[in-house]
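Sanity check

After download, print the first record. It should look like this:
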Amino acid sequence: MKILVIHGPNLNMLGKREKSIYGEKTLGEIDALLKKEAQALNVEVVTFQSNHEGALIDFIQEQGDSAQGIIINPGALTHYGFSLLDALGDSKLPVIEVHLSDIYHREEWRAKSVIAPIAEERIIGSGWRGYITALQVLASKLNAEA
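Expected structure tokens:
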């Protein structure tokens, strides 16, 4: 079973950027923890990060046919990434949306997600652990359906 983990704009700066909001772990450290958990769950994880919406869409379109689910932190694209929303929907894969910070207790504009309508689950404000939770939830759901 293959799960895509997609990181949107600015997530490559984790560990350097606003540590009080996003935490101390780098994206590389989070991806390593995801791969370790994936091994324990007997699933394959393919991670990808880009600061460009088109690159995220290309990744979904290129990898989607061989995957069974998607975990995505769309970053700022959460609020206006309609073409990203379309690509996720077109994939027909279950999607879990993850946010490191609690988007409901920050600036008002951060609370709106264009991805939410197609997300089967949303994990918000759990820091890096939200990715692990998302992987556990998605793997469990996919195994139950298999």
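If your output differs, re-run the checksum step. Summary of this record's structure: Residues 6 and 72 are 5 Å apart (CA to CA).
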